[in-house]
Design goal:
heterodimer, A: 576 residues, alpha/beta, 6-stranded mixed beta sheet, 21 helices, 20 strands, B: 346 residues, mainly alpha, 13 helices, 64% helix, disordered N terminus
Chain lengths: 576, 346
């Protein structure tokens, strides 16, 4: 078996490791074969990163998983894929198992679900080693520790016996990478390896993969939809759309001289961080602790937080968790304020408190003139007319058992007591305003695409013409081209209706595009707030600086320069 | 950043297009029904249940409505065959003397009563008990489980401790006592009391489902829209818990039939002159070696009822589980592939 897979480090770089020829992947649904990917041809060389980009449903993941025989039971692959001359398509049983994990390894998107929660990470890495190589447990342990050191996990001896839930997201992904590198794979498939991670952690993982790339001597297939990550990592790129390769070429050519119209629209749709605000107007505001100016005209603020503290109450033996600690800022009428922070920073908590889904612990929170700290249920009812919220996950925020027309009309039904023809006229008007066809009103959420569902969510939040809207990561679950359309729609509606908006996001580029001011949260504290020019081009707080530096931009040259600065910052502050 | 102007309704190519092929233009209910229909066992069970229930209620009539069968469960006839042997005969190709139904197809007991009519009345009793227990336990279980799961806190604590208490009661013993108190004769009253004891399983499952449902964003969305608690429970949460409720209901119903049969067999459930399948088995068990048909038919119908309901429940569980995809057989897939190849040259 190992005779035909030379893995000696002497093998020359640039050797062809994977040749894919006319790969077809199709799925059997409802009595018919539907093509998920067709006529896929590409090759990968040693030491090279080939990025496969495309939106969801473009077949990029399925075509790569078919190399490992990891298609669902109703899928099939045809064509040819040769790993060092050995045919992969049609492999079964022991032959296939010998390839999996040894010759081809995969880094999955979500390390929490890809690692087994009941085994220690050390065990899982050793398992990968011992299932392919003749090793006794102590050898496997030594090798696993070596791998953990290679992926720069702090204190590898201690982490070896840690369970996945005891590690941070970044450490889990490092452990996952260590496991995939266990048997020196010839080909490494990284399926959206950083999508589930925060942007600063993503930066660290990207740095790690870059550093490893030169040392491990494998070909890497990087599957992603994030053009910033592609710009950071890729040597060559293939662009997929609806199951076909529409364009392929090296990174520079794709980014600077895209040939296919789809590639151009895709690149245009990617928010380019740092390009929406003018760096020159970023005057260095005197630095100091971010004590915000209390709203000059409190009457004009639709959202006003002063020394706000929010806690999740204790549950059983778990102590109360202080999610927001002494935060003060305000949103004026008709203003869009961006709230950025990484997961766990408390940004969603503020959004939920602002619409009355969470109780105020101390401090004051005034929404559209109502003090939420003292408000009772009766006071909240009129407030519901003035605030709306767009949720993050359009799949979960619509009741799967209600037609979307009913979901949109529910606030009108409850507050305006609208019924029958009047209600259906308003629902149609709302559907028009979010550019959905009127006959969609009788459809169910599962029949809609992600972008359509999020439009429905926006229509519902605008049904009562609110003064203040919370947008909680409304586009983070969407593809870039869909995101671009939804954001455009959102901007238009904001201009038209003039509502004040708290736009919560982890994506600095999106926030820069929309917001006049940006607030940065870290671990429940407000570290910086200011006009977007200042936060984007001249951040004052060290955390903000790190955050800004970590955002990848969709331009290989610019990103190369940013990468140097970013790596310096990571080196200075150490890995998380 | 440039945008192209989207045309309403056509702007998004659905990224989940292939998965959508399976569900296009269908409501949740229709999807469930379609998946249910593909489940052969469940459809078989449904047909068997409908056939048995139809036969039982049309043959001897129900209440004041007369049926098409000539005998009633209590009328005594002269013995048609010696010993009251069944008059139904197997067709010749099965080794019988030619297919016939006769006047007493399931035979007669020692005092000449028609076993067919009695069995049919027993099936009616079982179905009544099943429906009443199902309804009572569903209403109670859903309400209690919904309140506990939605409000949590001390309401949840109180209701769940009550549930725990009810579960500790040995069902057969309490059922026996209640059956005696209820006067034995009244089947509906007995079923009502049993229903009051059998809801905890349903309540726990519904509570569990509600605990996860209340974290879903559409519940928050309804709350932000200003919906009342009752509206959220009724309009947004119960429809989404329907899968759990229906599946559990079928299990409760099949358990109810067995419970009634067991109680009646022990002499604590349905009393003479009423007829129940369990009671018939109890009455005729001494005749097992001499007149086995007295014994077989009620047993056979208990098995048919319980089995068909369990099959239906099994099919419903699969149909409601969105993660469960029907894996097509290799033959189906190959056939479709051949079709494509045939179509390709043209």
């Amino acid at each position: 078996m190992s005779a035909d897979t030379p893995q000696s480090p002497t093998s020359k770089a640039g050797e062809l490791v994977l040749e894919v020829q006319d790969l077809d992947v199709s799925f059997f649904v409802d009595g018919e074969w539907h093509t998920a990917a067709t006529e896929i041809s590409y090759d990968v060389r040693r030491g090279e990163v080939l990025a496969i980009v495309g939106e969801s449903g473009s077949g990029k993941t399925q075509s790569s998983m078919s190399l490992l025989g990891l298609l669902p039971s109703n899928g099939r692959a045809a064509g040819s894929a040769k790993l060092l001359g050995k045919e992969l398509i049609g492999l079964r049983g022991p032959d296939l198992r010998r390839v999996r994990g040894k010759d081809i390894a995969v880094i999955f998107q979500e390390p929490m679900t890809a690692l087994n929660p009941v085994y220690t990470i050390g065990f899982q890495i050793s398992e990968a080693l011992r299932s392919h190589l003749p090793m006794d447990p102590s050898q496997a342990r030594a090798r696993a520790l070596e791998l953990l050191r290679m992926v720069e996990i702090p204190e590898p001896e201690r982490r070896y016996d840690a369970f996945p839930h005891q590690l941070s997201g970044g450490q889990r992904q490092r452990a996952m990478i260590a496991q995939s590198l266990a048997c020196d794979p010839t080909l490494l498939i990284a399926d959206e390896p950083t999508t589930a991670l925060d942007v600063t952690v993503q930066a660290e993982i990207l740095k790690l993969i870059r550093d490893l790339k030169d040392r491990i001597d494998s070909g890497i297939v990087l599957i992603t939809h994030d053009m910033g990550v592609v710009a950071d990592m890729a040597d060559r790129i293939i662009v997929m759309k609806q199951g076909r390769i529409v364009e392929s070429g090296d990174a520079h050519q794709i980014f600077h001289d895209p040939q296919h119209p789809y590639t151009r629209t895709l690149l245009d749709a990617v928010p380019h961080f740092g390009s929406y605000s003018d760096p020159k107007s970023a005057t260095a505001v005197p630095v100091g602790p971010p004590v915000q100016e209390p709203s000059v005209e409190p009457d004009n603020a639709v959202l006003d937080l002063r020394h706000l503290v929010l806690e999740y109450p204790k549950q059983g033996s778990q102590p109360a968790f202080r999610a927001i600690d002494d935060v003060s800022f305000h949103v004026d009428r008709g203003e869009v304020v961006g709230l950025v922070g990484e997961s766990g920073s408390g940004k969603t908590t503020i959004g939920r408190a602002a619409v009355g889904l969470l109780k105020v612990k101390s401090g004051s929170l005034r929404v559209a003139g109502v003090d939420m700290a003292t408000a009772r249920r009766r006071d909240l009812k009129p407030l519901r007319r003035k605030v709306g919220i767009v949720f993050q996950d359009p799949g979960s925020s619509l009741n799967p058992r209600l037609p979307i027309g009913e979901s949109i009309g529910e606030p009108l039904y409850l507050h305006e007591k609208m019924r029958g023809a009047e209600l259906s006229r308003r629902v149609e008007a709302l559907l028009d305003s979010v550019e959905l066809a009127r006959d969609m009103r009788n459809r169910y959420p599962h029949e809609l695409s992600g972008g359509q569902r999020q439009r429905v969510g926006i229509a519902r939040s605008l049904a009562l013409e609110p003064d203040f809207l919370v947008a909680d990561e409304p586009t983070s679950a969407l593809d870039v081209s869909v995101q671009a359309k939804v954001l455009k729609l959102f901007l238009d509606l904001q201009r038209e209706h003039g509502f004040g908006c708290l736009f919560i996001s982890h994506d600095l580029a999106v926030v820069e595009m929309l917001a006049q001011r940006i607030a940065v949260l870290n671990h429940g504290k407000l570290v910086e707030i200011g006009p977007r020019e200042q936060v984007v081009h001249n951040p004052q707080d060290p955390y903000t600086r790190r955050l800004v530096a970590a955002v990848p931009v969709p331009d290989p040259d610019e990103q190369a320069a940013r990468r140097i600065r970013r790596d310096e910052l990571i080196a200075a502050s150490g890995v998380s | 950043m440039t945008f192209d102007t989207p045309r309403p309704g056509h702007e998004d190519v659905a990224e989940n297009a292939i998965e959508l092929k399976d569900v296009q233009g269908l409501s949740q209910g229709q999807i469930v029904w379609r998946r249910f229909r593909r489940h052969r066992g469940a459809i078989g069970g449904l047909l068997a249940l409908l056939a048995v229930v139809g036969l039982a209620f049309t043959s001897i009539g129900f209440g004041p409505i007369p049926g098409w069968w000539q005998h009633t469960p209590s009328s005594r006839l002269d013995l048609i065959n010696p010993m009251g042997r069944p008059t139904m005969a197997l067709p010749t190709w099965l080794g019988g003397s030619g297919f016939a139904i006769g006047d007493a197809p399931f035979g007669q007991d020692e005092i000449g009563r028609d076993i067919f009519a009695r069995t049919m009345r027993g099936v009616q009793t079982s179905v009544q008990v099943m429906v009443i227990i199902g309804l009572v336990s569903a209403v109670l279980g859903v309400l209690i489980g919904a309140c506990a799961g939605f409000y949590r806190g001390w309401i949840d604590q109180g209701l769940m401790r009550l549930t725990d208490l009810i579960i500790t009661f040995p069902l057969v013993v309490v059922g026996a006592v209640l059956g005696k108190i209820a006067g034995g004769g009244n089947v509906a009253l007995l079923a009502l009391f049993l229903g009051l004891l059998i809801w905890p399983g349903m309540a726990r499952l519904v509570r569990g489902d509600f605990l996860s449902l209340r974290e879903r964003e559409f519940v928050d969305a309804a709350r932000v829209a200003g919906a009342s608690d009752w509206r959220i429970i009724r309009k947004h949460m119960i429809p989404n818990a329907m899968g759990v409720i229906i599946v559990n209901l079928t299990l409760v119903m099949s358990a109810a039939i067995l419970l009634e049969a067991a109680l009646s067999y022990l002499g604590f459930g349905v009393q003479t002159p009423n007829v129940s399948l369990g009671l018939m088995i109890s009455q005729y068990q001494s005749a097992f070696s001499t007149r086995p048909w007295l014994f077989w038919w009620p047993g056979f119908f208990i098995i048919v009822l319980v089995l068909s309901i369990n099959f239906i429940g099994d099919g419903l569980r699969d149909a409601f589980d969105p993660r469960q995809k029907k894996v097509p057989t290799a033959r189906q897939m190959a056939r479709a592939a051949r079709k494509i190849e045939k179509g390709a040259p043209q």
